[in-house]
Amino acid sequence: KQEVTQIPAALSVPEGENLVLNCSFTDSAIYNLQWFRQDPGKGLTSLLLIQSSQREQTSGRLNASLDKSSGRSTLYIAASQPGDSATYLCAVNTGNQFYFGTGTSLTVIP
Amino acid sequence: GAVVSQHPSRVICKSGTSVKIECRSLDFQATTMFWYRQFPKQSLMLMATSNEGSKATYEQGVEKDKFLINHASLTLSTLTVTSAHPEDSSFYICSGTSSLSYEQYFGPGTRLTVT
């Protein structure tokens, strides 16, 4: 069964720093991987979707990479801002089901 | 991007009553819809997967007689929590995918509080 792990569980950084969030999965047979943002009490907001054939995707200050063979993905956030404070989830899509990581709670300190 | 709506956004009900939550895909046909539940400070947990016109597939440990899911059309799925108990209080999120993409579009969620 697919298992998705995110490290670290929580991260606190001063404003302006670049940071990396990690996501690992146990089964490389995936269709795609998504990174989401969740604000407290809110639904998930999709940030980036990486297809299994892709190595990375970029959107603004966000860059997500995928190394399917090693079962890893990273979310890089450049020049962090207080508004980036949220929980970040990665989810692996096997084609039949989505498997979510436990999330990284990010706090950007002004 | 594609939009998924949920109604209601918040609901408070008394123990023993039933609550229906609607999930609608507004600008795409959701051939598959997922229902998730999130307890505080925990990750989303998939409850069930439903394909339009078919019976939902429930995850292990999810009572299908308690959480009734109907996916009667390509734009609407409903989750009915029957005989609700306080431990059912949670944040319920639906999502949908189309046959054209595996990208998953999430609804904003419904906060259920059972008193």
Mean pLDDT of chain B: 88
How many runs of DSSP E, i.e. beta strands of chain B? 11
Determine Rg of chain B (CA atoms, Å): 13 Å
Number of H- or I-type helical stretches of chain B: 0
Question: What is the residue-mean pLDDT of chain A, rounded to a whole number?
Answer: 90
Can you walk through the features of this model?
The complex is a heterodimer of chains A (110) and B (115). Chain A has 110 residues and is mainly β. Chain A contains no helices and eleven strands. Chain A has strands at residues 4-7, 10-14, 19-25, 32-38, 44-51, 56-59, 62-67, 72-77, 86-93, 98-100, 104-109. In chain A, strands 2, 4, 5, 9, 10 and 11 form a six-stranded mixed beta sheet that branches. In chain A, strands 1-3-8-7-6 form a five-stranded antiparallel beta sheet, with no helix packed on it. In chain A, β6 (56-59) and β7 form a beta hairpin. With 115 residues, chain B is mainly β. Chain B is 0% helix and 56% strand. Chain B contains no helices and eleven strands. In chain B, the strands form two sheets. In chain B, strands 2, 4, 5, 6, 9, 10 and 11 form a seven-stranded mixed beta sheet that branches. Chain B is globular, with a radius of gyration of 13 Å. Chain B starts with a strand and ends with a strand. Chain A binds chain B through residues 31-32, 34, 36, 41-46, 49, 89, 91, 93, 95-98, 100-103, and chain B through 1, 6, 34, 42-44, 46, 49, 91, 93, 95, 102-109, 111.
Q: What are the key terms here?
A:
heterodimer, A: 110 residues, mainly beta, 6-stranded mixed beta sheet, 5-stranded antiparallel beta sheet, globular, B: 115 residues, 7-stranded mixed beta sheet, 4-stranded antiparallel beta sheet, 11 strands
